[in-house]
Design a protein that fits this description.
Layout (H helix, E strand, L loop, with lengths): L3 E2 L3 E2 L6 E7 L5 E7 L6 E5 L11 H9 L3 E5 L19 H9 L11 H14 L5 E6 L1 H12 L4 E7 L13 H8 L7 H15 L7 H14 L3 H12 L5 H4 L5 E7 L8 H9 L4 E5 L11 H13 L3
Helix pairs in contact: 1-11, 3-4, 5-6, 6-7
Length: 315
Amino acid sequence: MNHSVMPFQASPYTAYMQQTQVELSNGQRLHVEIGGAPDAPTILLVMGLGAQLLFWPNSFCHALIHQGFRVIRYDNRDIGLSSKIKHRGKRLNVIKMMGRFAVGLNNQGAPYNLYDMAEDAALLIEHLKLQSVHVIGASMGGMIAQILAAKYPDKVDKLALLFTSNNRPFLPPPYPKQLYSLLGKPQSNDEQGIIDHTVKMFNSIGSPGYVNPIESLCTARRLYQRSHYPTGVRQQFLAILCTGSLLELDQQIKADTLVIHGSRDRLLPPPHGKAVAKAISGAKFELIEGMGHDIPSHFIPQLSNLFAQHFTHKN
């Protein structure tokens, strides 16, 4: 396989992480950040729908690094500083597709699906010459991580899933307010309009009482200035709709698995996480009281400790 890589550079976002661009053999280019000792056990972080790698807070990455891990976070295809996908097919009816998805009917026509995104992750692991890694997948990233663990078991040591779903039919749908905050359009398309929309989204899906308004505003501005590509958000949502249920794949996963979900998650309510844990043999489930669909500072010590204990526990 032909891979190329640009030299590592210090990231402008945190002194703990170094950044690079990785060209994969499937034609995708991923923007990657790596921190921690090169010989430490590696954790690959896979983020969710429309979410740049900065949705993994620096303090969360630092907490894992301080507990003895090497941490890799990256922008999925179609978001952030990674490759953008041009869709040349017909425009799809998202509402109709959502209805079919909810009852377990197949959809087609997306420019790519979550299996393609899992291949990206597998090729990244291969490119970095890692034998196997621990994986934490959040939201859509948790769906990608489930596929990765089932289809590429030699690349995944232990698996951790955060506020995710296996999209089996008839799970409770997202609350309308939270879904619209993620997929809706801003009131204006200038910088301030986009930033305001992102802050509202943080408040809507986040952990009630734990969303820091100053931190949210700063993060929203950084995200906009780093990359703004709403087409990628829509196409990643189509990828979910055209992938469908992961229930059968979950039953193939052999990796030791921890599933964590927030009790106040209204984007993917807790039954989604419980369905994943039930479907994966031997999986452990942890419900975090008060947490929503985000990683606020308040919960980082608890989350990082749970992940570290899971990855260091001897079976």
